[in-house]
Amino acid sequence: MALRNIFHEGDPILRKKCREVDKVDDRIRTILDDMIETMRDAGGVGLAAPQIGIMRRMFVAEPEPGEVYCFVNPEISDVEGMQESDEGCLSVPGYVGTVERPERIRIRGLDRDGNMQEYVLEGFPAIVMSHENDHLDGILYIDKARNVRPVTDEDGE
Ligand code: NI
Questions:
Q1: Which pairing describes strands 95-101 and 104-110: parallel, antiparallel, or unpaired?
Q2: Least packed by Cβ within 10 Å: which of 56, 112, 125, 139?
Q3: Residue 14 C-alpha to ligand 1 middle, in angstroms?
Q4: Could you tell me which residues come within 8 angstroms of residue 82 by beta carbon, excluding any fewer than 6 positions away?
Q5: Ligand 1 mean position to 70 CA, how many Å?
Q6: CA dist., res. 78 & res. 44, Å (int)
Q7: Cα 45 to averaged position of ligand 1 atoms, centre (Å)
């Protein structure tokens, strides 16, 4: 495994729409593994492929320590409710902002082995998946947030 460089806001690569993955093969698995390592090294809870310059529809997430998700060609549906919280992003280092997200989502997509998986998630995991999925369409949380501000000690991170 290897750490990858994370692209930062202002780089046009983060604003492009990603293409679907044709096949989950060893090349894709290597990228996913690198993404997990890179996410953890950076102290994040999610990382989408375009953030490391790979324009394919896939992301990794770890909303709780040890609870790792890999999603390839994800689709979110059955969006319900609303929750608001402060978000950050590894591509917008040093800032947080307040974002409204669905309280509950259904998410389907391929896993690291190319098998279809489906989850109904609510609360924080629903926020993380929604945030990462937006990256695949070139959307950053700062597009939706209010009160984007530098992180202070009070924000915790
Ligand atoms: Ni992000």
A1: unpaired
A2: 139
A3: 10
A4: 100, 101, 102, 103
A5: 15
A6: 26
A7: 9
Q: Which two tokens stand for residue 45?
A: 């809870």
Which residue among 9, 64, 118, 132 is the active-site one? 132
Distances (CA, A) of 18 to 42, 52, 64, 71, 74: 23, 12, 26, 14, 12
| pTM passes above 0.85 | yes
- Residue 87 known to be catalytic: no
| pLDDT for the residue 1 | 79
Tell me the CA–centroid distance for residue 122 and ligand 1, in Å: 18
- Strands 104-110 vs 116-122: parallel, antiparallel or unpaired: antiparallel
Structure confidence at residue 21 (pLDDT)? 98
**In this predicted model, what pLDDT tens digit does every residue of 40-75 receive, in sequence order?**
999 999 999 999 999 999 999 999 999 999 999 999
The dihedrals phi and psi of 78, each to the nearest 5 degrees, come to 50, 50
